[in-house]
Amino acid sequence: MAITAITSVEQFDELVLGSKELVIVDFWAGWCEPCIVMRPEVEAVAEKLDGRIKFFTVDAEDKSLRPILLKEDVEGIPSMVFFKDGKLLDRIAGYKKADVLEALINEVIK
Prior knowledge:
Elements: E1 3-5, H1 9-17, E2 23-28, H2 33-48, E3 54-59, H3 66-71, E4 79-84, E5 87-93, H4 98-109
């Protein structure tokens, strides 16, 4: 699969903040209906862009991952946050269909 689940703050620091490449982190939760509906859209875009962009997910319900949400100022879900060289580049909030999501990602990576 083209999406990797982040399971610890240390893993986030290493794989996301430590990456020189563009990475996208999908912040979501199991109780969030827009997150659940958007999951196949994110997976489709991740598969299409596999090899060009790394995709990660962070479960906002996981109390051990809350420091990530606080540090990265994630106020709502679903949110997709773009990082490169450990720096936040941009963010997208709310439900997006795959074609809209891909277009927004392409704007950021230009």
